[in-house]
Design goal:
Strand order of the largest sheet: 3-2-1-4-5-6-11-14
Shape: globular
CATH architecture of one domain: 3-Layer(aba) Sandwich
Bound molecules: NADP nicotinamide-adenine-dinucleotide phosphate
Order of helices and strands: EHEHEHEHEHEEHEEEHEEHEHHEH
Structural class: alpha/beta
Helix content: 25-40%
CATH superfamily of one domain: NAD(P)-binding Rossmann-like Domain
Length: 317
C-alpha cells in the first residue's frame, strides 16, 4: 500500500522525535517543519529510515508555506507548544492563532485527520494564561475542522524530556530544593513512547474521538516524583515547602532569564492536579498500552546523574 504522508509541526521536540520513529515504523511518511534546519536537522534526520522523512525549514507564521504543506498531506499532527511567552511567541499566537490557521486549511484541503496536542487539567486551571490559551485553541479547531482528535496528556517523560532530566540536574546541584503547594499536586506521568505509539494507533486504527486524555499507570504527587528521582540518583536533599508569596517573587526574577526555570503562570498552573478528569475518554478506553512505570523507565537513564555517572551502572553478566 502507498504510504500516507503525515505533516508534523513541532517535530524536533521530545514528543515529535519519538512520533517520527513510531509513524515511520508503521509505514507512514513524515514531513517535519523546523524553524532551524542547521540546529535541528541532525536530530531529525536520524529518526527515520531513508525515504520516510522530509525536513522543511520555515516558520509556523509563514502562511504560504503552511498552506502548501497542508495541501500536500494526508494527515497532520500539531505539537507546537510553549510554556512561557517571549516576543512574538505569545500563548495566543502559538496556542490559538496557529491551531486556528491549520484547522481552517485542514478543512479547505480536506485532509483525513488532524491530531492536536493539548494538555490535561486545562479546564480547571482558570487562572493560568497557558491553560486558557490551550483551551481556546481547542475550541477554534473544533469550530473549523471536525476530523480532529485532541490529545490531552499528563506530564510526558523520557530521556529526551525537559522534566526528569532538568529536575535530576537541579537536585544534583541544590542542597535544598524548594517545593510549591507542599508538593501535593498530583500527576500521572506518561512515558513518551507510550504516548507516541498511541498517537500512531489513532491514525492506523482511524480512531474518531474529539478529546482523549492520556495518563500513565501511576498517580504521583510532585513530592513523590522528587523523592523517586532522588532515590534513583542516590542523593539526599531537603525538600523545603516554599510559601507561595516568596515563590511569586522568585518567579518574577526567573522570568527575566531567556529560559525561565519557572514563571508566575506556571506557578498558578501547578496548583491544579494533572490527572484524568473522568469527563472524557482516556487511553484505557482504547486499550492503548501506556503501562510503562515511572521508576523503571527513568532508571534506564538516571545513572548519568549519579556521582559516578556511567561507572555507577550495574554490570550486566
Ligand atoms: N512534554 C510534556 O510534558 C507535555 C505535556 C502536555 C502537553 N504537551 C504538549 O505537547 C506538545 C509537544 O510537546 P513537547 O514536549 O514535544 O514540546 P517541545 O519539546 O517544546 O517541542 C515543541 C517544538 O515546537 C517547535 N516550534 C515551532 N515553532 C515554534 C515556536 N514559535 N515556538 C516554540 N516552538 C516552536 C519547536 O521545533 P523547532 O525548533 O524545530 O521549530 C519545538 O521543538 C506541546 O503542544 C505541549 O504543550 C507536552
Amino acid at each position: 500500500m502507498k504510504p500516507k504522508n503525515c505533516l508534523i509541526f513541532g517535530a524536533s521536540g521530545q514528543i515529535g522525535r519519538n512520533l517520527i520513529r513510531s509513524l515511520t515504523k508503521n509505514n507512514i511518511k513524515v514531513t517535519a517543519l523546523t524553524r532551524n534546519i542547521h540546529q535541528k536537522g541532525y536530530i531529525l534526520k536520524t529518526q527515520a529510515n531513508p525515504g520516510f522523512l522530509e525536513i522543511v525549514e520555515g516558520s509556523i507564521f509563514d502562511y504560504e508555506l503552511i498552506k502548501k504543506l497542508l495541501k500536500n498531506t494526508d494527515l497532520c499532527v500539531n505539537l507546537v507548544g510553549i510554556l512561557f511567552e517571549k516576543g512574538k511567541n505569545t500563548f495566543n499566537n502559538i496556542h490559538v492563532e496557529f491551531p486556528k490557521m491549520i484547522s481552517k486549511l485542514a478543512s479547505i484541503y480536506k485532509i483525513e485527520k488532524l491530531i492536536h496536542l493539548s494538555a490535561l487539567g486545562i479546564e480547571s486551571a482558570e487562572d493560568s494564561i497557558y491553560a486558557q490559551s490551550k483551551l481556546k485553541g481547542e475550541k477554534e479547531i473544533f469550530n473549523n475542522f471536525d476530523k480532529t482528535v485532541i490529545v490531552r496528556p499528563s506530564i510526558v517523560y523520557s530521556v529526551d524530556d525537559n522534566f526528569t532530566t532538568q529536575l535530576m540536574t537541579l537536585l544534583g546541584i541544590l542542597p535544598i530544593f524548594p517545593i510549591y503547594y507542599n508538593g501535593k499536586t498530583k500527576f500521572s506521568p506518561i512515558h513518551c513512547a507510550d504516548l507516541t505509539n498511541s498517537i500512531t494507533k489513532i491514525i492506523t486504527d482511524d480512531i474518531r474521538e474529539n478529546i482523549i486524555e492520556f495518563a500513565g499507570p501511576e498517580e504521583m504527587s510532585f513530592r513523590d516524583i522528587l523523592e523517586k528521582l532522588l532515590s534513583l540518583i542516590d542523593k539526599k536533599r531537603l525538600l523545603l515547602p516554599m510559601p507561595i508569596s516568596i515563590a511569586r517573587v522568585t518567579a518574577h526574577f526567573f522570568e527575566l532569564l531567556p529560559k525561565p526555570l519557572i514563571t508566575n503562570d506556571q506557578l498558578r498552573l501547578l496548583k491544579y492536579d494533572n490527572i484524568l478528569s473522568g469527563k472524557y475518554k482516556n487511553n484505557n478506553d482504547f486499550n492503548f498500552n501506556c503501562s510503562s512505570r515511572f521508576e523503571d523507565e527513568v532508571n534506564k537513564y538516571s545513572y548519568m546523574w549519579k556521582r559516578e555517572g556511567e561507572y555507577s551502572k550495574k554490570e550486566v553478566s
